[in-house]
């Protein structure tokens, strides 16, 4: 059933948001659990579409998935097999390719569909494949599959491209190296907080990963890994989304639990724009009671400005006092959503992957379509700030990454609801038992 969100904008958002688990940390941890034949118990895994897709991928290769107490996800990969996961699942969610590293490391064979591109840009996996080859695997690309084989991976030095510091390639290389023979060094790894959380998970399983968060990660291979109980960290991109919503509506929003250093550069930019920021050990508060200045941003790998919040800061700049230049340097197609903002009265010019935003006094409500996950979130924020009623279609892409979006916004005083095409109000299911029973 196609659904849409209806938002009545104009009210300042005020209050505290309790963050869900990180989508991007959870996806790597779920794949990492394949590295052991012992069970893993994972807490704070968000019941969002991408995570559900990953659980379907895991089940398709022999992993038993169930829900324990307090919505903990129980994984048993003792029956892991090398049958290729279905292409229709992998093409839905690129992180499905994360199963390649553990399959190769633990079973010596991985046949995985290539994920292909997505709406935000071409997204090859050549860095992943090169890492597997460097570790000694024989890798071929045939009929849309990556086919990799190696009896026992051998430690090596892997150089990731410092231009990208690929998150996915870092995660896959760490998993493959965890069971390789010897001491692997990964140069120019991703330093995102989600990668640090993932390294902690691998070490909880008995891996020997050091240097996560620095410019060099080392992995001392071990013979086998054991099961563990682990908690996924909270979602910093969800946190940023609600902070931008508070800023754009002239409100006062606190997000927790979150380590402020996980959004350090984002907070620098909000401070530069003149917003009020307060941080505690485990929370961030942003308030705005007046106009704010335009700032320039170029996305970059962590600790730079995260590409996943580029749509949010560009949308904020649409009602800033001045002119802002926003450069998207990570993806070659992550500015398409600007056409939807223009429908709401935004003044934005895009040349290649650079947007020039001239602030206008306010946006106006309009029917818009959500092209991708983070752009959809930005359109929700735009609708909350715009005078009038905004209807957002294509919201299934938003459900990929946000848990209880409407509830959390309503708790902040926003007016938002989900309707199906018959005009009936809908509340998405977020109970793990029901979700797992339905897939
Ligand atoms: C992760 O994607 C995140 N997804 C993305 O979040 C995030 O935008 C991205 O990292 C950058 O931070 C997950 O963690 C599940 P990359 P990933 O490998 O790993 C190019 C969201 O909205 N590249 O760091 O796929 C690639 O095309 C999603 O939550 C290659 O060329 O990103 C891109 O231009 C969107 N070859 C750049 O590197 C490769 O083999 C960065 O990609 C791999 C990547």
Classify the helix fraction into a percent range.
Answer: 25-40%
Strand content: 15-25%
Radius of gyration: 21 Å
- Determine the CATH topology of the largest domain: UDP-n-acetylglucosamine1-carboxyvinyl-transferase, Chain
Biggest β-sheet: count, sense, barrel?
A: 5 strands, mixed
Runs with pLDDT <50, length 5+? none
Q: Which sequence of strands runs across the widest sheet? A: 21-22-1-23-24
Task: Please report the first level of CATH classification, the CATH class of the largest domain.
Answer: Alpha Beta
C-alpha end-to-end distance:
16 Å
> What structural class should be given to the helix and strand makeup?
alpha+beta
Spatial shape: globular
CATH homologous superfamily heading of the largest domain = Enolpyruvate transferase domain
Bound small molecules, by name, code or SMILES, are: ligand EPZ
Summarize model confidence as the mean pLDDT: 97
Count of strand segments: 24
So, CATH architecture of the largest domain?
Answer: Alpha-beta prism
Question: Number of folding domains?
Answer: 2
Number of contiguous helices: 14
Give structural notes.
- By secondary structure, this protein is an alpha+beta fold.
- The chain has two domains: 3-20 and 234-428, UDP-n-acetylglucosamine1-carboxyvinyl-transferase, Chain; 23-231, Enolpyruvate transferase domain (UDP-n-acetylglucosamine1-carboxyvinyl-transferase, Chain).
- It is 30% helix and 24% strand.
- The strands form six sheets. The chain has a five-stranded mixed β-sheet with strand order 21-22-1-23-24. It has a four-stranded mixed β-sheet with strand order 2-14-16-15.
- α12 (373-385) links the parallel β21 and β22.
- α5 runs parallel beside α6 (167-178) and α8 (236-248) runs parallel beside α10 (310-317).
- The protein is globular.
- 51% of the residues are buried.
- The model has no long low-confidence stretch (mean pLDDT 97).
- Bound molecules: ligand EPZ.
- The site of ligand EPZ has 24 residues, from α1, α5, α6 and α12.
């Amino acid at each position: 059933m196609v659904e849409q969100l209806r938002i009545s904008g104009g009210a300042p958002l005020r209050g505290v948001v309790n963050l869900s688990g990180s989508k991007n940390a959870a996806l790597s941890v779920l794949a990492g659990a394949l590295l052991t034949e012992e069970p893993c118990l994972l807490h704070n895994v968000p019941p969002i579409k991408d995570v559900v897709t990953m659980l379907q991928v895991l089940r398709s290769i022999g992993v038993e998935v169930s829900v324990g107490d307090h919505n903990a996800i129980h994984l048993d990969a003792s029956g892991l097999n090398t049958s290729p996961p279905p292409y229709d699942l992998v093409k839905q969610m690129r992180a499905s390719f994360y199963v390649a590293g553990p399959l190769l490391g633990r079973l010596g064979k991985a046949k995985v569909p290539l994920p292909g591109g997505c709406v935000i840009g071409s997204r090859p996996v050549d860095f992943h494949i090169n890492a597997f080859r460097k570790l000694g695997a024989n890798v071929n690309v045939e009929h849309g599959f990556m086919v990799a084989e190696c009896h026992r991976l051998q430690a090596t030095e892997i150089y990731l491209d410092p231009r990208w510091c690929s998150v996915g390639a870092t995660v896959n290389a760490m998993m493959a190296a965890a069971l390789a023979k010897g001491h692997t060094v990964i140069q120019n790894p991703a330093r995102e907080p989600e990668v640090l959380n993932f390294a902690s998970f691998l070490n909880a399983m008995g891996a020997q990963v050091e240097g996560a968060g620095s410019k060099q990660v080392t992995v001392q291979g071990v013979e086998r890994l054991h099961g563990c109980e682990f908690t996924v960290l909270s979602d910093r991109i969800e946190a940023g989304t609600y902070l931008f919503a508070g800023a754009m509506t002239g409100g006062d929003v606190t997000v927790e639990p979150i380590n402020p250093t996980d959004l350090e550069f984002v907070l620098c930019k909000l401070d530069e724009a003149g917003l009020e920021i307060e941080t505690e050990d485990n929370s961030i508060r942003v308030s705005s009671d007046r106009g704010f200045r335009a700032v320039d941003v170029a996305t970059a790998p962590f600790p730079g400005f995260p590409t996943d919040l580029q749509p949010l800061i560009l949308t904020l700049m649409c009602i800033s006092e001045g002119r802002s230049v926003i450069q998207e340097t990570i993806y070659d197609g992550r500015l398409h959503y600007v056409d939807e903002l223009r429908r709401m009265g935004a003044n934005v010019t895009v040349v290649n992957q650079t947007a020039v935003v001239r602030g206008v006094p306010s946006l106006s409500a309009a029917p818009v379509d959500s092209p991708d996950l983070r752009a959809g979130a930005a359109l929700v924020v735009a609708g909350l700030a715009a005078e009038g009623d905004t209807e957002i279609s294509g919201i299934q892409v938003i459900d990929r990454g946000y848990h209880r979006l409407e509830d959390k916004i309503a708790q902040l005083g926003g007016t938002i609801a989900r309707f199906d095409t018959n005009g009936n109000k809908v509340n998405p299911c977020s109970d793990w038992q029901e979700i797992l029973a339905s897939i």
